[in-house]
Structures are given as structure tokens and as C-alpha cells.
Amino acid sequence: MNILILGSGGREHALAWKINQSPLCSRLFVAPGNAGTSQCGENLNIDVNDFDTIKDFCLNENIELVVVGPEDPLVKGIYDFLRNKRTGGDWTGIVIGPSAAGAQLEGSKSFSKQFMQKNYIPTAAYAEFNELNYQEGKQYISKHTLPIVLKADGLAAGKGVIICNTVDEALDAFEEMIVNKQFGKASAKVVIEEFLQGIEVSVFVLTDGVDYKIIGHAKDYKRIGEGDTGLNTGGMGCVSPVPFADDIFMAKVEERIIKPTIKGLQTEQLEYKGFVFIGLMNVNGEPYVIEYNCRMGDPETEVVMPRLKNDIVEMFVAMHKGELSKVDVAYDERAVATIMAVSGGYPGSYEKNKPIQFFPPQEGSGEAVLIFHSGTKHLDDKIVTNGGRVLAVTAFGKDIKEAAKRSLSKLKEISFEGMYYRTDIGYEFIH
Ligand code: AMP
Ligand code: GLY
């Protein structure tokens, strides 16, 4: 089948790498893609939010499967658009991603908290406020235990969550969001919740809204600095499997969180045929949901796809036919680590178009080291930087220590002006 992936990050390169290995894949396109995805398929100069052009392309090139990488087009309703919910039927392919209604699990913190509450899914206690009950919100903050977590309701490019250690800090952040409209409409509502103390892990599920399969889990490292210090980023690295996410913990996740989530999708009639990314906090061995995302993570995909032994296209087709329950999921027994090389200055301002020197990666499956491109592009005959996060180096090992060490030694062979990466990815699990 002809397949189209939407997006241009390391996530999309990892998906393209995986999909390209499937005997079911005939032609693979990535829109807009990066210098790495062009090694797996054909890049297209189409924006992920240009729904009309995407649909025309699907019709003209006989695309049978569209895999949506980022959240933005999903929240804006690409699933519904391509599935002709609004425009009257002509294209009948498979779209991996929820409907706009289902994507609200990520698109609105208020919606997802209500969803969890209605479905008895463990999460932090919360309240929500807007312009109308702003004064009540201030009182709520003043009486709350610290730290306290403020979340802009809508998508805020990963910047909408603020963890405050003092009441003054929280009141200022609250005023910024509600009164000064820091994130525009996205902060017209603010969720205020208790701080959960623990260690995070993310679990990835593929579902057709009835059945589901766990396709992997990972821990990511969000801060720019060593030892989880400094500003938040899109993610500086990941490891999988996570030692504390053992059978006992994962059984709790399945019973208390995944099953009620899928059931909730049904009771609330949310059409959902795609990935659910469940961000969890392990609080003394008990899982709590921090957030849902309606897509795969980046750089989580760069460890989840290499560990997954199944043919992912076969899984998509099984999902489409309502036959997910027949799929047996198998993982590579080895540990995987990925480390992101980023542009100097990221997550603040940074320069682009820096030539990257590296030895070409082995792109087959089962290799010990894989290089997934993120912000890269071709310029003349060179590959140059084209974003904050530039590339992810994924490595296998007998344990996280070996995997991380292997990734670091590959990173030493790569260079571009201003290149930075963390050297401590997986540190909690390395002794
Ligand atoms: P989110 O955008 O919801 O992923 O939140 C960003 C990050 O903030 C999460 O990955 C956590 O590290 C942290 N966070 C969010 N909510 C909480 C909470 N209730 N308690 C502790 N940390 C949180
Ligand atoms: N790495 C976090 C995310 O993709 O949301």
C-alpha cells in the first residue's frame, strides 16, 4: 500500500524507518519530512495543516494509509476531514489518529481532567478557573499546598504547564494566563492541580476505540541541563524499558488506566483510531495520569519503534479491520536509549543551516545504533541543521548503561557548530 506520514521530526523519521521495513509498504511519502525521512521515502513540500492539498495528494497518488505525527492537525480535525465527515465521501483510506473530538484528550486539559474524573482514572486532584471565577481561583491558590501546578487549558507549544513553589509565583502565573492572556485562547481556562511527587513514565497504546495494544513505554528527559536542570525542552533523550515499569506496575496501568480510558472513549462516543500516549507519574508504585497525548512522543518514538518487533503496518491494518486483539506484540529484549543533539541556544533562540558532519548510519533493523533526524534538511550537497532538536542517536545495549554509552560514543562522531547534548540520559538507572 502507498503510505503518507505527516510531520518532520525525529518521531516521523522513526515512523518512516519502521514503516519502510514492512513488506506491505509500496511507496512511502513524508510531508514535509526532513533529511532523514528522505532516506526512507519521498519528502513532499506540503504543510501538515494544509488539509486540502493533503487530501488531493491522497486521491491522486492512491494513498491508502495516512499516519499523523504531530497533535496540531489532529486537534484541528484532519481525521474527520480526510474521512470526509465534513466534505462528503471520496477518499476511503485509513487515518492513524483520533477524530477532533478524541484529540481533545490532548487539546484541552479541562476536557481530559473531566474525562479522567468521569471514568475514575487516577490523576492529580484539580479545579479549573476562567475569567469569571478568577477571584475564586486566587483564593484556591492561596489555600493550596505547595508546590502547585498550573496548566493552560489549550495547546501552548509545550509551555503551558507551570510548577510553582510559592503562592506568589502561582498568583503571578495565574494572572499572566487569565488576565494577560499569555497563551491567548489556550489560557482562557486554567487547570490548577496538586503536584505529584514521583518518577515519570510514558506508555504508548494503539487503539481502534474498542481493542488496544500496548506498543511500548519510555522515560523521557525534558530539561535542557544535566541532572534534570534548566528549561523544559521537547525532550532531550529517552530510555526503554524503564526498570520500575515491571509486570506489577504495568498490570496496574492496564487495569486502572488503559482499560477505563478505552471504555471512556466508547461511553463518550469519541471516535479514536490511533495512538494514545499516556504520561504517568509513579507515586510510590501507584500510577497516576499526568496527561494524555493523542499521538506518539518525540523522542519516545525513537526508542519505542526500534524496540517493537511487530510489523507496524500490519498492526495498523489489523486495527482498521477491528482485529487488533489477534495481534501478539513482541519487543526486542535489549534496552534502548536515545540522546538528542540540539542546536546551541535551544530551547531559546538558535541558528540554523549549520552543516552536519557524520558517518552515514546503518538503516536496517536490528542494528546497534540508529540515527534519526529531527531538524535537518538538505542544502546544496550538504545536510544542515534546521531546528532546535537536530537529531536523535538511538542505541541498543544489554542494559540502559550500555545503550546510553553506545549512543554517546556515536554522538562523538557527529558534529555541527554549537552542538549540545546531555551526557546523563538514563542516569537513575545506571549504577
Ligand atoms: P504536560 O504538558 O501536562 O506534559 O506537563 C509537563 C510536565 O510537567 C510533565 O511532564 C511533568 O513533568 C510536569 N507535571 C505536570 N503535571 C504535574 C503534576 N500534577 N505533578 C507533578 N508534575 C507535573
Ligand atoms: N517528549 C514529549 C512529547 O512528545 O510530548
Concise account of the structure shown:
The chain has helices at residues 10-20, 51-60, 71-75, 78-82, 100-107, 109-118, 134-143, 167-178, 247-267, 301-307, 312-320, 400-411; strands spanning 2-7, 28-32, 42-43, 63-68, 94-98, 126-130, 148-152, 161-164, 189-194, 199-207, 212-220, 223-225, 229-232, 237-240, 272-283, 286-293, 335-342, 369-373, 376-379, 382-385, 389-397.
Structural description of this entry:
The protein is of the alpha+beta class. It has 4 domains: 2-97, 3-Layer(aba) Sandwich (Rossmann fold); 125-194, 2-Layer Sandwich (Dna Ligase, domain 1), CATH 3.30.1490; 199-326, ATP-grasp fold, B domain (D-amino Acid Aminotransferase, Chain A, domain 1); 335-429, Glycinamide Ribonucleotide Synthetase, Chain A, domain 4. Helix content is 28%, strand content 29%. It is built from 12 helices and 21 strands. The chain has helices at residues 10-20, 51-60, 71-75, 78-82, 100-107, 109-118, 134-143, 167-178, 247-267, 301-307, 312-320, 400-411; strands spanning 2-7, 28-32, 42-43, 63-68, 94-98, 126-130, 148-152, 161-164, 189-194, 199-207, 212-220, 223-225, 229-232, 237-240, 272-283, 286-293, 335-342, 369-373, 376-379, 382-385, 389-397. Strands 1, 2, 3, 4, 5, 10, 11, 14, 15, 16, 17, 18 and 21 form a 13-stranded mixed beta sheet that branches. A hairpin with a 2-residue loop joins β15 (272-283) and β16. It starts with a strand and ends in a 20-residue tail after the last helix. It binds adenosine monophosphate and glycine.
